[in-house]
Amino acid sequence: MMTSRWVTCALALTRDGAEVVGADITGRAYRWDRVEGTAPAPLFSAHARTVWSLLLTPDESEIITAGSDGTVRRWRRVGGGQAAEPFTAHADWIRALALTSDGSELVTAAEDGTVRRWNLPDGSPRGAALAAHDGPVRALALTGDDDELVTAGGDGTVRRWSRESGAPIGEPLLGHAGAVLTVAVTPDGTEIVTGGRDGTVRRWDRHGGRPLLEPLRAGSGVAALVLTGDGEIIAGSYDGVLRRWDRSTGQSLGETPTPHAAVWVCALTPDERELLTAGPGAPVVRRWTRGGQGVGLVPVRSATWIDTAPRLEIHGPTPF
């Protein structure tokens, strides 16, 4: 019998969208074959406490995890086991990770208000820590050209940094009333999109630093953002609702209630046909088929859930 303690806090997908890698509130990680509905490997204990962020290396050979214990750990995606010795990156919770496109540099952001850069594969520090925010750093994004870091803080600001030098770029982006919980950069690199505890989604000109159009109203704290290649913003909120907007006009594209008490994380398959969501309230990862503009999110007919041990199991059909 699964319990509500088993809640996914981080998700990543392989480039072909066939495999989902996730981690939960108790520090366990898993792999799930999305197409076949089977588990290539059993759950494993990645950290002693919550894993807040994970990602895959560019060659997809490793899973990198970080969380409440302040450590960064690296795992072989296929075959299992540690790929390298763990290292302590912060003395506080690590909330977010980013990796350069060539996999040579890892960036960590933490509750201690700092952002740190690390050389891979040896895990040595790269430059001094960035005193990024007056309070926790809640989210982090790396621009597609690897030139800039964008950070979001509990102090309500969004800041930009040169990845190479660590120098701040421009003035802080101001507008949220309260903590900024999530940040994303558009695929073309021209805009920054943020979601806050104040229940708004805001768009910013990346190069000029000015706000674009009016804030989008979610009505509840926005914990997760997905930006699609066809110009859609998808936001997961604390009220368990998925909300969608046209990014260029701000027009609402609808709302989809979910069975989650809150939507903490979202992930989009590379072909942008399917959205995965997770959060507290039910120990499941939900799957949603995404149509084109004007077409709502349709849940896969049966919930996908993940046994706590000793295996993963898909209940119900897949949409393929």
Report on this structure.
About 0% of the residues lie in helices and about 50% in strands. By secondary structure, the protein is an all-beta fold. The strands form seven sheets. Strands 25, 26, 27, 28 and 29 form a five-stranded antiparallel beta sheet that branches. The radius of gyration is 18 Å and the shape is globular. The model is unreliable at about 305-320 (pLDDT under 50).
Briefly, what is this?
With 320 residues, the protein is mostly beta strands.
Derived structural class: mainly beta
What is the alpha-carbon Rg in Å?
18 Å
Helix count equals 0
Q: Which bin fits the share of residues in helices? A: under 10%
Shape: globular
Sequence stretches where pLDDT stays below 50 over 5 or more residues: 307-320
Q: Give the topology string: H per helix, E per strand.
A: EEEEEEEEEEEEEEEEEEEEEEEEEEEEE
Strand content: over 45%
Termini separation comes to 28 Å
**How many strands?**
29
Mean pLDDT: 89
**Largest sheet data:** 5 strands, antiparallel
